[in-house]
Amino acid sequence: MVVEVMDMILWTLYFSFLGAVLVLLLPGRAAKWAALSVAVATLAAAFAGASEYMSVSAQAPWVTLAKSPWIPSLGISWHLAADGISITLVLLTALASVAGVLFSWNVAHRPKEFFALYLTLIGGVYGVFFSVDLFLFMVFYEIAIIPKYFLIAVWGSTRREYGAMKLALYSFIGSALSLAGILAAYAVAGGHTFDLLELASYPFPPQFQYWAFPLVFVGFAILAGMWPFHTWAPTGHVAAPTAASMLLAGVVMKLGAYGCLRVAMPLFPIGLEEWSLFFAGLGVVGIIYGALVALAQTDFKFVIGYSSVSHMGFVILGLMTLNAVGLQGAVMQMFSHGVIAGLLFAVVGRMVYDRTHTRELSELGPMQLYRSMPFVTVVFVLAGLASMGLPGFSGFVAELMIVVGAWRGIPWMAVMAGLGILLAAAYTLRVMQLAFFGYGDNSSENSHSDMSKIDAISWPEKTGAVLLLAASLCVGLRPSLLLDLIAPAMNTPLVQVILKGAGS
Amino acid sequence: MNYGDLLRAFSAETLLVLFAGVIAFADGWLARKGRAEQLRHQIASGLLLLACAGAGWSLVRVTPPCMLPDGMIVSTDVGIHLKGVILVLLSFTGLIAAGTVRTHHIGEFYILLILSAIGMFVMLSTENLLMAFVALELASIALYILAGFDKKDVRSAEAAMKYFLFGGVAAAFLLFGLSLVYGLTGSLDVRVVGRSLSHMPASPLLLTATVMVMAGFAFKIAAAPFHLWAPDAYEGAPVSVAAFVASASKVAGFALFVKLLTVGFPGTFLTRNGLWDAPSWMSLAVLLSVFSMIWGNVAALKQKSVKRLLAYSAVAHAGYMLIGVLAAPKLGSNALLYYAVTYALATVGAFGAVAAVEKSCGSDKLDAFAGLMRRSPFLAICMAAFILSLAGIPPLAGFFGKFYLFAAILKMDGSSLCRFWLAGLALATSCVSLYYYLQILKQVFVVEKEDADTIGLDTPLRWVLGLAAAGVLAAGLFPEALLRVL
Amino acid sequence: MTQTPWLSLLIFVPWVMALGLACFYRKDGDAAKKAALVFSLLPALVTLFLVGHFDAARAGMQFVERHDWIPSLAVEYCLGLDGFSLPLVILTTILVPFAILASWQEKKTDGVFYALILFLQGNLYGVFTALNFFPWFLFWEMSLIPAFFLIRIWGGQGRIAAATPFFIYTMLGSAAMLLSFLALYISVGTFDFVKLAELGRTGVIEGALYANLGLTPADSNMWVTLVFFGVLLGVAVKVPLFPFHSWLPAAYAEAPTSVTILLTGALSKMGVYGFLRLLLPIFPGVIREWLEVLLALALAGIIFSAFAALFQKDLKRMLAYSSINHLGYCLLGIFAAAASTHEVAGAATEIAATLNGVVVQMFSHGISAAALFCFVGWIETRGGGLRGLEDFGGLRKAAPIFCGLFGISAFSSLGLPGLNGFIGEFLIFKGVFALVPWAAVGATVGLLVTALFLLTCMEKVFHGPLPEKWEKWPDLSLFERVTMLPLAALMFVIGLCPQMLVGLVNPCSTRMAEWLSRLWI
Question: Hey, which residues does B128 pair with through a beta bridge?
Fold first, then answer.
């Protein structure tokens, strides 16, 4: 059933790519305003689309947005669709992109290119979330890789070229793995369509699924930061400029998780069942490992980087629970982590680093930033609390649902995940103290006066921070805002395949 | 078929020859008048463009379907479309050359380009072993000379020498192999050869013939381990020639060989119950492909000269295209030709960009590209399009090309050829390739250069780059349009 | 059920006020202090209304508010008030303004400090009234945050070493508790305390846990035990139950006075309330099964902390240990209430008495510990930061009123008849003695030692020769007297007419005692 009004949400995709061109055409001074207006427009389109979806989701949880042949000789079509899962992630992307522009307000170095690449990246991300045709999916998936490289390599900081290259290669390797699996599936299914819906209903032989599933899943999970393929994440995050690390953690890692959920899992349900325990284990290892490593970092941004690995471990675990609650939790966690990690990176990269020019915790501590930057401190504390999964914030609901899902199938992993929550509290608390409150006594009058020279927090930063915090709080206090979107998606064929596969 | 028909059938080639003569006269006259070299370049390249346009028009309008006995000339739609591609590449090369080639023998340069193109035309339309060989040599000999055209640069001479020696040896191999085939089958017509070979039991003689043909083939397309001439030839030859060698001769070469192999060697088996239950040339092609993908990509990692880098990447791409050759007997050469054409487009563009940079900085080293974005945004963006297409990044043509190739090889059924492993290796090596392609783009976009002087592009080059980039993008966005004609 | 959401009002008014303080009085500490005092009194009006309209004869929940929250997870926003929670709400209402007054002279405080206190107040109300695990846990965790920052930023020298363990311990408990409740949820499909209690009483929970989690029949018991201990860990850390108490002395000692008052007076009650609201109704069987162990832990807490207090040199640490000791009686009573009762005559009455005692003890410990910590705070201000037991002496001569009021609080704390402390301890001992005699006997050791260290403290600080440097020791100012007067009055009132408080609790206790005594395993 094609619902005409739903076309609205596709404008997110078009706006972004058109915006990228527009930014290149405008003079450099206008770039950020243009980018902001484009981002806000996509946000509006995303909200409009979400509300449209809400109104039809009961009858039609799966909404086809566009379908026309593209490369008929290979059975490739321009097939875009949306369900609650993709709309949730589109909302996240829209939020993160607005915030990202706001936190890049001070980009003075080659701003045109920065925002053009930024919008291209966003556009690729939207494209992935809408794609049903697997070729199209991979096209958008890889479109997102190259802007990342440049954003980091040109505008990044610590070891930016290394981090950028590592990220690009990891992403590319991941997509190559997935591509291999997808092509194999295409060939095995007779080689006449790349349409996900059709392929998902093809009964692949179990022997094939046993090896094709891990291939595609790992390929996507690399970008989701699954242990032990996560090593690109911390270095990439650290090297990236603020907006890029916000997008990396906030959105790009979700691309990987989305790929797992949308492509790998429904295509190969038998393989999924075979491997689910294994990957759930990797997810749990990621949760614990990421948290432990975060606990030992001396660089502020690395802490956040590893915390992302830990949080994405929850997503993997949620996906592998193979029940509706767990999957919903995983999607919630994607949203929640996107918002929160984005905010944390914004605090670290933009608010703190741009002013203090250090990210070493040992140097930040003596500055007693909570005196000179009360706003930043409050934001970080709230974001940190959200990150450690405190109730009231979105992370809690998400992790709660994931753990509920895990209890159902794999109780011991739920217990380990609980340990992960605890460790999250530990490292967040540690970094909060070290970075903002410092050790030692209040005899730091000198550093205090030093710090009085720093720039005040500007309005774009405040707006961005409030936007993201509000998103996390709204969802945390009223999870049904998102759950009403996600829950209907559990009835779509692609999700039903996963759930039924697990049941049988 | 009378001579009139024959002339009509060869109208494009005839037009090209005529224009070659016109260029010779015009340039000779201008030279005697002592006109500036720039003007001579302009006149000559203008005439070249005119020749291309005329030939193109005649391809579209005049050429009737034609079939000469013994498969001497078999014109097919695909062949005609590929000739069009060759014309496009020829005109691009001419335009690049107009601004960059340093020589007094300007007319000769363009004439040789045209002659080489004529050789390629015949390669595309023949199904006769002898004719194929002659056409191949026509194309190659012109290119040998062109490679050495920069007489002030010793590297150019080295390039020509290496290219010539290796090419000569390859020709010998090929000729030897083809004559063995002729001896075995008593025919030069590829179709007849194919029919007789498919009934023939495996014999050492046939095996030798296959190996020889494949070796000659591998030399021509610069597949590892027969690629040793390529880096030096690409680096030393004038950039425009390198562009032509890398693009047009590759398209024509692959088109010819895929025709020869699929039609002429359909069922010659290495052993009946051997390692691979496939025609013997296929197992050789698998080996060549594997070598090329690995060697080309790994060697490219260490290059500092962009031309050498592109040369090694050409080796790697030859490996990918060999996959297309493997898939061709079952599924047609569609995937291969799409890949070859888009690859040629991207390569010609990339060499065009290298030419522009080299003209401005006198170097083709990686760091000559530093800060290109600042120095010439247009050039930088075009370069990005070419390089990313070579790397296989959507939405550029290279992505779909690779995608189609891999899909095609996987679609071949049967456990032969280790198709999964081959596709896997191809994907893996293309990940490796991203590294060195990004090294170029890193220089272009990331590295900032202090003394950044802007690079001026002359209009023809600008058009070449722009059109090639647009072509790469369009072929990526609408591959169906290209697929339909190949 | 009323139309006006009184309980929500109770929670949200302090929150809004906190937000206002943080926004408008961030810099101006003095104005913030006054505003905070006024704001903190607003919930008193609501509390008064609630007390006035509370039907003391009814055992069930009153003023219930119920709204859907996350329907797919059976999460509801559900608040209610019964005899167990009302005294704690009253206690919170009293203690927050008292805490603000107690640190009136504090210079370092600013608007954020008071905002956090008000925020904490709202959360305390939330914990004491929430009837669904989800909101309850939300308030529970959110009360931790302001407490942490209050210690971390405004605490004394060792504040870092104090705040972090406090936080980590509590998070550890919370995580375990969360997991346990999730296990409960997926087994029985509800987060509602009332429903869970119903299921616990009928023994459904064990079977459901086994059906959903257990792999082999032998697991059946293991899972319910694990889940029980998860919840136990969560609440035990807060109280704290021995051996989870090691965060407490440092936290109490380093926190600023007003925060210590809230920590000991209100936050520790969250833990005891958790025992009363969650563990006892939902897992009576498991408590009974592990009775000896649990009682032993409670006893260990009572006795060890009493001795530890005896050997402290620091007044604040001494009082901190005494808090562990006093709350140990509550836990003792709660555990004993789940004891097997088929040999005890009139078990229901005894259990009811115990539970009444527990609630009264919570209330009166809140009052007297708050008063004592307040006095120590004043001593610290006057003594220029000194608060060692040996640093003072003979202060009675310099400050008789100070000494007198301190004495009243101390005696209330050690359970002198006529004062509030006696009522709670008496009821608990009476019940426990009948139910589990050995535990009661053991606990008397704690009583004795408590008396010993409190009297020692009195003696060392107020008696003996007055050192020269303390001759100018100022007596209580009028302001301080007014601050302390209501609390001192309450000690007498409850001590003399305990029925005022017990009457509120008794229906609830009786009902719970009814079915606890009928519970048979």
Answer: B189
For A175-225, what is each residue's pLDDT tens digit?
889 988 888 888 888 878 888 888 888 888 888 888 889 999 999 999 888
Indicate yes or no: CB of A176 within 8 angstroms of CB of B430: yes
Instruction: Read off the pLDDT of each residue in B399-421 and give the average, rounded to a whole number.
Output: 77
Best interface-test mutation with C: which of A277, A368, A375, A437 has the largest number of C CBs within 10 A?
A437
Contacts of A397 in chain C (CB under 8 A): 70
Number of domains within chain B: 1
CA quadruple C264, C267, C273, C277: dihedral, nearest 10? -170
What's the average model confidence in pLDDT over C448-470? 83
Name all chains with 3 or more CB-CB pairs below 8 Å to chain B: A
Task: Output the six-digit token pair for B207.
Answer: 């095996």
**Å from B287 to nearest chain A CA?**
20
A-C contacts at Cβ under 8 angstroms: 87
**Domain segments of chain C: what residues?**
290-521
**A-B contacts (CB, under 8 Å):** 83
DSSP 8-state code for residue A456: P
Q: How confident is the model at residue A334 (pLDDT cuts 50, 70, 90)?
A: very high
The answer to whether C172 and C237 are in contact (CB under 8 A) is: yes
Name the residue facing C183 among A401, A407, A419 (closest C-beta): A407
Flag whether residue A209 sits within 8 Å of chain C, measured between CB atoms: no
| Cβ contact, residue pair A176, B411, below 8 Å | no
pLDDT for B319 equals 92
What is the rounded CA–CA span in Å between residue B315 and residue B313? Answer: 5
What was the pLDDT predicted at A351? 82
Whether residue B274 has pLDDT greater than 50: no
Determine whether C518 is exposed, middle or buried from the number of CB atoms within 10 Å of its CB (0-12, 13-18, 19+).
exposed
Peptide bond into A234 cis (omega under 30): no
The two structure tokens encoding residue A494? 């692609």
Task: Supply the range of the domain harboring residue B374.
Answer: 3-485
Bridge partners, residue C515, by sequence: none
Q: Which of B480, B482, B483 to mutate to test the interface with A (most CBs of A within 10 A)?
A: B480
Considering only CB atoms, C153 lies closest to which of A418, A437, A487, namely A437
Q: Helix or strand or coil: residue C358?
A: helix
Collect all residues of chain A within an 8 Å Cβ-Cβ radius of residue C216. Answer: none
- Quote the mean pLDDT of chain B: 86
Give C151-181 pLDDT, tens digit per residue: 888 877 777 778 888 888 888 888 888 888 8
Closest Cα partner for B364 from B351, B375, B374, B376?
A: B351
pTM of the shown model: 0.86
Residues C241-294: pLDDT tens digits?
A: 888 888 888 888 888 888 888 888 888 888 889 888 888 888 887 888 888 888
Q: Label residue A203 left, alpha or beta by phi (over 0 means left) and psi (-120 to 50 means alpha).
A: beta
Touch of C by A (3+ CB pairs closer than 8 Å): yes
Is A489 near chain C, with CB under 8 Å?
A: no
Give the DSSP H/E element, type plus range, for residue C145: helix C133-154
A437/C178 touch (CB, cutoff 8 Å), yes or no:
no
Interface of B with A (CB under 8 A): 334, 373, 388, 393-395, 399-400, 403-404, 406-407, 410-411, 420, 423-424, 427-428, 430-431, 434-435, 438, 441-442, 445-446, 479-480, 483-484
Q: Cβ(C355)–Cβ(C393) under 8 Å? A: no
Taking residue C451's Cβ as centre, other Cβ atoms within 10 Å add up to 17
User: What band does A299 get if pLDDT is binned at 50, 70 and 90?
Assistant: confident
Q: Which of A328, A421, A439 sits opposite C175 (nearest CB)?
A: A421
Name every chain A residue with its beta carbon within 8 A of the beta carbon of C12: none
Rounded CA separation A329/A372 (Å) = 38
